[in-house]
Design a protein that fits this description.
The complex is a heterodimer. In chain A, strand 5 and strand 6 form a beta hairpin. Chain A has three domains: about 80 residues, Outer Surface Protein A, domain 3, CATH 3.90.930; about 190 residues, no CATH class; about 55 residues. In chain A, helix 8 packs antiparallel against helix 9. Chain A is about 65% helix and about 10% strand. Chain A has a three-stranded antiparallel sheet. A three-stranded antiparallel sheet of chain A has the order 4-5-6, sandwiched between helices. The two termini of chain A are about 20 Å apart. By secondary structure, chain A is mainly alpha-helical. Chain B is about 50% helix and about 15% strand. Chain B has three helices and two strands. The longest helix of chain B has 9 residues. The termini of chain B are far apart. Classes of the chains: A mainly alpha, B alpha+beta. At the A-B interface, strand 3, helix 2, helix 4, helix 7 and strand 6 of A face helix 1, strand 1, strand 2 and helix 2 of B. Strand 6 of chain A pairs antiparallel with strand 2 of chain B, so a sheet runs across the interface.
């Protein structure tokens, strides 16, 4: 007997992406499922009897499975999807919570309200024209006035604060770019918020539902952010060109905005740290869970090589290239980190053993706060990865126990 | 063998990572604070 009610099965959202790829959403979590499970869920939602479903599956997939066998397997899968009618079921831990300290700025309704009027910007002709204008305007501006900013005064603190507020608004607009693109393909973004990715503050928008879209449309949603930044660049450059040279302060502010906007735009295209470039690469080559899989993949290949099981035709090159590049990137990041760690620790030791430590504490407060932040972040990551390691050991032991029983 | 393989593949489940499209705010601060990059820069001139 099936372990789920009809009402529970109906909460599952189904999406046939094409190319034998099937996506289901359960409580806003996305799963890639096999065609048999997809069909079973689809037919259960149509209230078809399970006996009939088993016959259809056997016919369609060219297999021979009994009703009770299929029931047992499907029950296991509903458990893995996190839906079951048993009361003592513990929902699965979400595997991809990578933004900490999330703070929602705009909820789903507001995001939809703002995104809808901007959908027209994603009509193919409009998209190509505005993107091309943005790229040309930015390039020409840099070619002609790239060094103009050097040597200029930056203005009062109030002006600097105004520049930062404008930048925050531009980056918020970047997120609207993603949500408007999703809205153009009739997918609702969940929210726009603020949080921390590792230690870095970020704006984010949850567009998990675009897994239901085909590859080309997913890439356009990924590009939505930088596309909107290019539009902002065009507007800023036009404003800059219209201003007379006598309005120097305003020209400097606009130049600063253009250069920072362009820098962030280009940075967003790098594929590390789950920037926009990560999703573009992942969607272009159709590699799912790239970062998580990338950590293990090279070692898995080396293992296969030693066991003589490595088949070159089966190597997922895009994943392997990303994985190796990611290790190089993490290695350089770790190198810089270790260098800072050793110099900071040496300085901290000298400060702490100084007999006048308490006398000079006021003088050293900046340095001590820096240390507190640095070691705080380090402690956070050590405890997090320690927990992850223990969790993996537990899972490994549980899997081994199940394997030895069967 | 093929029967059980087809069945296994057909019932496969992989949880996908959430798609949170982010924009890094610290990069903007780094870029904006790195503007003084020429010897004509007032700060650099003052330091000399």
């Amino acid at each position: 007997m099936l372990n789920v009610t009809n009402a529970q099965v109906r909460t599952i959202e189904l999406s046939d992406v094409g190319g034998e790829e099937f996506i289901v959403f359960v409580n806003d979590r996305a799963f890639n499922v096999g065609p048999i499970l997809y069909r079973v869920i689809q037919w259960l939602q149509e209230d078809r009897p399970f006996q009939e479903i088993t016959q259809e599956i056997n016919l369609e997939a060219g297999i021979n499975v009994t009703e009770s066998e299929l029931t047992e397997l499907v029950n296991d899968n509903f458990d893995r999807l996190g839906i079951t009618k048993s009361k003592d079921h513990v929902p699965l831990k979400r595997r991809s919570e990578y933004i900490y300290g999330k703070l929602s700025i705009l909820d789903e309704e507001w995001v939809a309200l703002i995104s809808q009027p901007l959908r027209g910007l994603f009509k193919p002709a409009v998209f190509c024209t505005l993107a091309a204008i943005g790229i040309i305007a930015t390039s020409v501006f840099y070619y002609l006035y790239g060094n103009w900013i050097s040597g200029q005064e930056y203005g009062s603190p109030a002006q600097v604060i105004l520049i930062y507020i404008t930048l925050a608004a531009i980056f918020f607009f970047h997120e609207i770019g993603h949500t408007a693109a999703a809205s153009n393909f009739d997918v609702k973004a969940k929210e726009i918020g603020f949080g921390f990715y590792f230690i870095f503050p970020v704006f984010f928008t949850d567009v998990t539902k675009i897994y239901a879209l085909p590859k080309r449309k997913r890439i356009i949603v990924n590009l939505g952010g930088v596309y909107f930044q290019l539009i902002v660049n065009t507007v800023l450059i036009v404003a800059w060109a219209l201003l007379p040279w006598s309005a120097e302060a305003a020209k400097i502010a606009l130049t600063l905005l253009v250069s920072t906007n362009t820098f962030v735009l280009l940075y967003s295209l790098n594929p590390f740290f789950r920037n926009d470039g990560y999703w573009i690469y992942s969607d272009f080559f159709n590699v799912k869970n790239m970062l998580i899989r990338g950590y293990a993949y090279p070692f898995q290949l080396i293992g296969d090589l030693f066991k003589g099981k490595l088949k070159p035709v089966e190597i997922e090159w895009p994943l392997l290239i990303f994985a190796v590049a990611n290790f190089v990137f993490i290695g350089s990041f770790a190198g810089v980190f270790l260098q800072s760690f050793s110099s900071l620790s040496a300085q901290l030791y000298d400060t702490a053993v100084d007999p006048d430590f308490f006398k000079n504490i006021g003088e050293n407060k900046g340095f001590l706060l820096k240390c507190l932040f640095f070691y705080g972040v380090l402690g956070f990551f050590i405890s997090r990865y320690w927990k992850m390691l223990l969790y993996r050991i537990d899972r490994y032991r549980a899997a081994k126990a199940i394997a030895s029983k069967s | 063998m093929s029967n059980s393989n087809n069945l296994k593949k057909g019932l496969d489940i992989i949880e996908l990572e959430d798609r949170l499209e982010t924009v890094q705010l610290a990069v903007a601060a780094a870029s904006a604070s790195n503007r003084c990059d020429s010897c004509d820069c007032p700060k650099a001139a003052a330091a000399e």
